[in-house]
Batch of 2 targets.
Target 1
Amino acid sequence: ELKVEQNPLFLSMQEGKNYTIYCNYSTTSDRLYWYRQDPGKSLESLFVLLSNGAVKQEGRLMASLDTKARLSTLHITAAVHDLSATYFCAVGGEGATNKLIFGTGTLLAVQP
Amino acid sequence: GAGVSQSPSNKVTEKGKDVELRCDPISGHTALYWYRQRLGQGLEFLIYFQGNSAPDKSGLPSDRFSAERTGESVSTLTIQRTQQEDSAVYLCASSLRLGSLGAFFGQGTRLTVV
């Protein structure tokens, strides 16, 4: 059974600081997603990572994937208040479907 | 439509009543997914539909839950005899095909069972 663990669950950080969110998963998968969710809103897709060593960057966010370690990271550089949200990683289940198994989420609060 | 549309956006129901939640996928998307998000938690997969193939119902938590989809259009998720533990946000997503990269999520229906 595919399980996805995310940590930390809550992250309070100051503007300008760097931090990393970790996502571990238990079995092989062909895809890993990072999503952002603002309070009361739906999910916004940030990145999809497909292969070992994949790295994608958008603004202050950078995601990477190590399929051998079954680990993905979401790195935040020089955080700003606008990045405050909950971030989820999600891993594709069996077969090439979007039957995704989600982590519990990381609530990021960036303090001005 | 421009995005995945769900209705109602909020639903409060009494314990024991049946509810129907509706999802309008993006036009042309053949795959449709339902997820449940309990307060403060990640999303749990419930069911997906792909065209006219048999749906994958493996995530439905009990036989009180059912879903239908006609062709590649609207889907309804029905919860019978609602219980308080059914309170959650129910999210629908669609993608071009079953394995397409990136599923687009609707705004969700917040269900509260009192």
Target 2
Amino acid sequence: AQTVTQSQPEMSVQEAETVTLSCTYDTSESDYYLFWYKQPPSRQMILVIRQEAYKQQNATENRFSVNFQKAAKSFSLKISDSQLGDAAMYFCACEPNSGYALNFGKGTSLLVTP
Amino acid sequence: GAGVSQSPSNKVTEKGKDVELRCDPISGHTALYWYRQSLGQGLEFLIYFQGNSAPDKSGLPSDRFSAERTGGSVSTLTIQRTQQEDSAVYLCASSLAEDGYTFGSGTRLTVV
């Protein structure tokens, strides 16, 4: 079984600043994938970034990067140079390589202020 | 199509009625998933289809919920005798191997 915990229900950041969203997970799997998804009011889940657990190098996608600490089972998302369009719900998710269903945290609502 | 399409976008139904929610996955995607998102919650896995294999129904919350996928493409999620606790957003996703999931915009179901 897997559990994903996002301990910050809401976060706020000023435009152009940097914010970090926290995520911890628990899994008995030796190989798995970790994801951050963004959900704007349109409801569609948009993939922000993906990390394979066997890779030590932290994934980066433009202004988005992760801090993956495998031993601590931590997977935080850093958003640099925040933009108004980054405002959304952000969900952390874990998928076992032996399985197929994404397990999601409860999400963090990110507010970006001008 | 270019993305995962779900219909209807919104559905209001009376308690006790049956509803059908439709998902058109991306053409060629062999895997299809249904998730439920209740207010203020994360996504809860419901059911998974992979090619012609028997679906994994382990996430369905009760026997009032069922789903089918015809011809390896379109899927329908059916909820019988709807209850107020069924009110949620129902999201569909499709994927092809390691390419990751593509989600639709969901159906918001309201049971009154």
